[in-house]
């Protein structure tokens, strides 16, 4: 599969954020990124059927969308990617590969599985972007000063039961959400406000940001949780790609058709970029 993905890594990288861009253009996009699983009782949330039709029968589709549908949407995207492989349609394969990766990664973020998704209920607003953006941006990249995080996780594996696999990841995230919130609260008690935050440049703007000292202390208190979840998401994304390819009959990836994106796709990409630019200007990209 390296033949396809390695040579198109720039496209995958650029379009992995398309689902986030689409949130500002398509109303039904938002629920695909999360599930407020704590709405359904206590771990392991047995009151919530894992099968979509059963869950709809019990709660209604409107209710499910109100609290997020990410584990089910990932399965929908897997079917789309599998069909793209069957069609040997390179444009669709790349588009759906980038997008399913986004949803899978979201499901590995604890605050994407909790109703207190940005600390808005506990006076911790901003913790969402702190956990999923600030910490990895600060600590993950390798440079002469920082050792960096290890994302070499071995080979992808075929997933026999994708539904069971992704629900396990969601439950792991849900179980970790309380710790994410609790530890930030505890650490805040130890840091004066002028040491918890600092002013730094982001996207050409000077913004108030969690300080490097606070970010590193929080990561240490979590004992590397962010890196572990990122490593798990890397493995999960690769394994879903591989599973879709196997389920499609393992087509020859050196001989694909429809390599050019349709006019409709190109129009969508342009439209999403415009929505995203406006969101960034308004400082909403981490809401």
What does this structure look like?
The protein is mainly alpha-helical and 287 residues long. The chain has a single domain, classed as P1 Nuclease, CATH 1.10.575. Helices cover 57% and strands 4% of the residues. It contains 13 helices and 2 strands; from the N terminus they run H-H-H-H-H-H-H-H-H-H-E-E-H-H-H. It has a two-stranded antiparallel ribbon. Helix 4 (52-59) packs across helix 5 (61-67) and helix 6 crosses helix 12 (225-247). The longest helix has 27 residues, at 162-188. The chain is globular and about 60 Å long.
User: What is the CATH architecture term?
Assistant: Orthogonal Bundle
Strand-residue fraction? under 5%
SSE succession:
HHHHHHHHHHEEHHH
Distance between the termini: 35 Å
State the strand order across the main sheet.
1-2
Q: Please indicate the count of domains.
A: 1
* Number of helical regions: 13
Characterize the main sheet.
2 strands, antiparallel
Q: Looking at CATH, which topology would you report? A: P1 Nuclease
Radius of gyration equals 20 Å
Instruction: Give the CA-based shape.
Output: globular
Summed over residues and divided by their number, the pLDDT gives a mean of 91
Number of strands: 2
Keywords, please?
57% helix, P1 Nuclease, 287 residues, 13 helices, two-stranded antiparallel ribbon, mainly alpha
Write the layout of secondary structure elements.
Blueprint lengths: L1 H4 L3 H7 L2 H5 L29 H8 L1 H7 L2 H18 L2 H18 L19 H13 L22 H27 L4 H4 E6 L2 E6 L1 H10 L3 H23 L15 H19 L6
Antiparallel strand pairs: 1-2
